[in-house]
Amino acid sequence: MKQRKVMELTCPVPGARTYKYGSCVVVVGHEKGRWHISISHQNRLPKWEEVRDARYQFVPKEVTMVMVLPRPEQYVNLHPNCLHLWETTDMVPGEWG
Length: 97
Fold this sequence. Notes:
The structure is a single chain. This protein is mostly beta strands. The protein has one domain: Streptococcus thermophilus LMG 18311 protein like, CATH 3.40.1720.10. Helix content is 11%, strand content 36%. The protein has 1 helix and 6 strands. The protein has one helix at residues 48-58; strands at 6-9, 17-21, 24-31, 34-41, 64-66, 82-88. The chain has a 6-stranded antiparallel beta sheet with strand order 1-2-3-4-6-5, with helices on one face. The longest helix has 11 residues, at 48-58.
């Protein structure tokens, strides 16, 4: 995991925290009792390594996070270069019977 400079920023989302994380911005919080991370970059989508490292930097390691592609009618895109991770309590591929 690459070490990135972390600086807390003012958060526009009630109950969440926002950080400058290297060249990305990360918003971390609990929504309906589950962790949620938004990670964005001003000029491009975040790289996989940035997403992975932010997940382990800001959410407890025992939590399983997933990236969800919702049905088209549920899709919301407020920032063109933002990706989201959500906590899941469902089985993940390595646990499937």
